[in-house]
Amino acid sequence: MLRVAVVGSGPSGVYTAQSLVEQTAVPDVRVHVLDRLPCPYGLVRYGVAPDHEKIKSLQNNLRTVLEHERVGFVGNVEVGADGLTPGRLLELYHAVVYCVGAARDRRLGVPGEDLPGSFSATDFVSWYSAHPDAAADGFVLGARSAVVIGVGNVAVDVARILARGPEELHPTDVPEAALGALAASRVREVHMVGRRGPSQAKFTTKELRELGGLPQARVAVDPSDLALDPAYVDPAGLPAVNRRNVEVVRAWAEATNWEPRERVIRVRFFLRPVEVLEQDGRAAGVRFERTVPDGTGGVRGTGAYEDIEAQLVLRAVGYRGVPLPGLPFDASRGTVPHAAGRVLRDGVPSAGEYVAGWIKRGPTGVIGTNRPCAKATATSLLADAPALARRTVAADPLAALRAWGVRPVEWPGWLSIEQAEEALGRTLGRGSVKIADWPGLLAAAGRG
Ligand SMILES: Cc1cc2nc3c(=O)[nH]c(=O)nc-3n(C[C@H](O)[C@H](O)[C@H](O)COP(=O)(O)OP(=O)(O)OC[C@H]3O[C@@H](n4cnc5c(N)ncnc54)[C@H](O)[C@@H]3O)c2cc1C
Ligand SMILES: NC(=O)c1ccc[n+]([C@@H]2O[C@H](COP(=O)([O-])OP(=O)(O)OC[C@H]3O[C@@H](n4cnc5c(N)ncnc54)[C@H](OP(=O)(O)O)[C@@H]3O)[C@@H](O)[C@H]2O)c1
Questions:
Q1: Within its chain, how far is the Cα of 343 from the centroid?
Q2: How many whole angstroms from 43 Cα to the centroid of ligand 1?
Q3: Is the pTM of this model over 0.90?
């Protein structure tokens, strides 16, 4: 029997478990999927936007894997904390696969980015997704105008959530406090701002187009922003996704007969943030420098500036991996160094240690991208199986974890949380509503 610990129950962790148990070359592989949270599914539960029910329902596919007879979910176990080092974990399992994602935000590196009222989109997403580590920071309190920096899919997500009305969010699983705050929000203008042009934006067309179909908002695009982009003027040579993006933006820029709407999303380009402006100790807007294409795919500043007023600033400029104590880390890339998924320690593959997902590749790619990534890592692990099976490990890893003081939440505990969230929703006249705090989650799991 080969015992494997997968650390992280997001898509890459679950797809790794699936690759390991759904193959026949190495019989009898048993997998424990560990997570620091008592809830599985990583960013599918705590990142995918609550109004994207169809993508959220991918949790059902992941669930099937976690219910496989040779897979066990072991939540509420943080590897790298409380003495549970990677070295100790290797005493319990023949192999450990790190699938811990990229949990933090990239920094902008401009003055004022830490002012009250200026947040990372990561924190905003965690709040409306009910992540138990999220701070209730009054994101929208007192704000009438918001600036979202970045034109990737996370920027589109947060702009859309800000532009939705309360009745649109009510059917989702947004936690009650966030729903109340968003319902009371007076944000009526959302500026989503890219430093390069529309042909270079990172969002995907389906997500972009959705902004144009929101019941309470219209999208406005400034044609003078677009004219700077040579590929906007002549999109013929662009890859299909960029060409489609340009077409969507062009239609918005050229539209004349707008139905009146309560809210507006202004999509801007060629503006690079240089400072978050301050008034009375709070963010009051963002100063941008006008940019122009530099001819090599980047931009250069022009020395001309534009200030956009906003009481809420959300920096959606990407995620980054965080080092896990005891595991090698490439700080420049925010990833764990590896060769074909094998963790490298001082440049040499470390026996029994593997990596998959965002912590292996960096924070890009949709859920499905993690499937081949996980499979590649599992293939390396299975090729190493004869050597791994010779390693001496504990007979009962869960008993050893408990002896070290870990109090795991296993699958029945998670199912109890699900039931408690459904019951909470019923009392509130809503569908399932997420529990947003550690004590509540642990009590629901029977660990109170
Ligand atoms: C805001 C947002 C929205 C997104 N929306 C979509 C979408 O709509 N559609 C789409 O296809 N893709 C979407 N994506 C991309 C998708 O979520 C990622 O591709 C995917 O989640 C990455 O998977 P992962 O397993 O590497 O990381 P994650 O999903 O982040 O999973 C990592 C897991 O590891 C756990 N963990 C971390 N550290 C430890 C530790 N020390 N010990 C134990 N456990 C630990 C975490 O709790 C987490 O459960 C979105 C991404 C973001 C950021
Ligand atoms: N619905 C979905 O499918 C969905 C939803 C959310 C996320 N995701 C996926 O999750 C991944 C992460 O998404 P993401 O939006 O966090 O990252 P992303 O796609 O890399 O976009 C980051 C954005 O931030 C900008 N940026 C970076 N540094 C900046 C700076 N210093 N100043 C100004 N702008 C800066 C980038 O501009 P440049 O291009 O100029 O660098 C880009 O517009 C992506 O693969 C995404 O597709 C998917």
A1: 23
A2: 3
A3: yes
